[in-house]
Amino acid sequence: MATLLNLPGVRIQEVRLGAPPIAGVGTSTAGFVGMAPDKTRFPNLLRQVTSADQFFADYIRDPTAPDDETKGAQQNTNLGMAVLGFFQNGGTECFVVNVGSEAPGDIKKGIDLLATREEIDIIAAPGIIDAGTYNALIDQAASTTNRFAILDPPAPVANLTDLQKGGALRPKDSIWAGFYYPRIQVSPVLKKDKDDLTADPTKKFFAPPSGHVAGLYARTDGERGVHKAPANVPLFGALAVEHLITDAQQDVLNNDSVNIIRAFSEGPTVFGARTLLVNDAPDKTFRYISVRRLTTFIEQSLRIGLRFAVFEPNNLALRQTITRSVRGFLDGVWRDGALFGATADEAYYVRFPDSFNTDTDRALGKLTVEIGIRVAPPAEFIIIRIGLLDRPANATA
After folding, report:
1. Is residue 266 classed exposed, middle or buried when 0-12, 13-18 and 19+ CB atoms within 10 A define those classes?
2. Which of 86, 209, 308, 363 is the most exposed place for a label (fewest CB within 10 A)?
3. pTM listed for this prediction
4. Gyration radius of the chain over CA positions
């Protein structure tokens, strides 16, 4: 029916009322720093890459070029193997910094560039294993609080105690990073790459696992959610591991939060899910990678999703609107299985504590909302109790 603008009377206008919905932020955009196969391409620039084909064209050579093409790179690098492994394992978007060399100073500058993009969720410097690089990655993740660092292992370690707490090759403790061992064997891509089929182990082609593991994070996030531990899942494109780890060795290393890649029948499999927090740490809240990343996901989603409330009148109506928005978001997180509780009220709460919202606080423009969540950590240890019966199982006691 036509609207009669000049006719006196009552008119109906439909509008949407209620709290603005909060959307979850991304969790699997990676940032990689290192030397590209063609180190002359886009040096010291932070660039978005959305496919393996784009990486080939931008940092190696045109993938449609013939095998005897003389232009472009002829040998892969740690960065190249990592980015290709990221896409092979389910990654969809990453940012790349080609530093042109693996000198510590150049790597540090490249890592600093990653901090300029807020949407990066996972950071790594593939194959760079010096303490300065470890620290730069960990410190950036801790200071930005919106990303997680994946740290690569050294080459085969003669003494595994070097990877344990206090060991010479171990990164510093952190709830913002995961440390993986050992390297993985991959297929050669370029003409001068080593031959993975030879029996000579020195000629096998090993890659740092960080790129493949970052892709596994993305795959797990997409299939199950960020609350699912990125573990007990095979790495696509990995043929073998550089160092076979026994159950007894992993028992010791896992205690100090070294995430082991095991050679299982289904292929090299990530079989660890811990942050770099040793077992005897006094606070074990963020022992697991999934707990750290889920908490980060919730924090960042709320930080962005509640921007609508800034500069609104600080009154009871605003509190009610915020409560509805936050509960609507956390209800979805709980229903996805990320929070523990039979009901939503058991899984989380949303409060405005009087002690943080006094008249003085309101006069200063402050509104404090307190949110409590009960996360569901991974079942790292499955215990099976078996008893031998001396009577039929269905017999009454």
Report:
1. exposed
2. 363
3. 0.91
4. 25
Domain count, the chain: 2
- Residue 386 CA to chain centroid, in angstroms? 37
Which residues, in sequence order, are CB contacts of 392 under 8 Å at separation 6+?
none
User: At 218, is the secondary structure helix, strand, or coil?
Assistant: helix
What range does the domain containing 326 cover? 312-397
**Residue reference for tokens 């797990």:** 220
In the chain, DSSP assigns E strands to 30-34, 46-49, 94-98, 122-124, 148-151, 177-181, 184-185, 206-207, 233-234, 240-241, 258-264, 267-270, 348-351, 370-373
Instruction: Decide if 163 contacts 253 (C-beta within 8 A).
Output: yes
Max CA pair span of the chain: 92
CB 168 within 8 A of CB 157: no
- Under DSSP, the state recorded for 146 is S
List, for residues 275-292, the tens digit of each pLDDT value. Answer: 999 888 888 999 999 999
Task: Tell me the CATH number at 102.
Answer: 3.40.50.11780
